[in-house]
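Morning run. Coffee first, then this:
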Amino acid sequence: MKTNTLIQFASLGLFGLSALTGYAVVPTNTVDIGMPLAVDFGGTTKTDGWYNLSSAPKNRVVQYESLSLPGNSGYPSFFQSTQPWPSPIDSQVYSSGTSTAYLSKSANGAAGGPYPAGDSIYFAGFGTEPNTFDGSLTVTESAPIADLSTVMFQVEFGEAYTYDFYDDPVDGLALPALTLFYGDSETITLSGVFQEKVMSLYNGTVDMPTGPEGEMVPEDIFINLWAFQYDVSGYEDITSFSLEFSGAEHAQLYAMQLDQSDIAYGGTSMVPVPEPSSVSLGLGLAVLTLVSVHQRRKVSTR
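And here it is:
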């Protein structure tokens, strides 16, 4: 799906130094610039982050802090990508005393599946057909905060053939659906009250048959930061919840962040907004496309 309203920044110089204070570390590559943003939740909160989903250790800059993060080794490789994962991937950074949130593979695609590769979780396959379903992932929180009311989930996702989330011809984008376990063994599945593509960072082009009479022409591809806000304030005794989404073949999942609050924000968007001056400082001379979060648009969910 394409965005409607864009803020274009071209040939950016180094400005906005006043936005950075202290010993803040400036992100200088596309993946780090597109990392999940800090969420301004009040009340009792909890945050879990997966900022390195590759097989190898990485240094990442997240919210102006440099982090040395372990790799996720021992998982199936490209040719074995449909095999089960040996274990879930626990959150790597967490605000509570221990990680109670984890990522697991919940489905494979027709010929491949997602696995931790050299720079990301790669939705593996051999095909060249755009928007091919290539499996599903699930984030589970086994110990939510008390009186959980609002959930924010951010996903940094690299496109392949202009698709990151799988776009079902009937049901639309397979965006994260939140399944809540509450009360007396009750469950319900919810869509986000706000579903935003917060940031799109140019990542090159790919030739696609989108020209006249199927002519191959270059199409821009992006690394996108998505944010999804869920209102669960109407449910009591929440024991756990999960978020499941599906990717297109060859898409790359770089990072995720899960935030919780006991404040019910309801119809007030708490989706974080990137600071253009800070982002441009990291890019230097570059071309950046930011999606305006002020232009709300409806997107389909499964």
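Residues 6-291 form one domain. Good start to the day.
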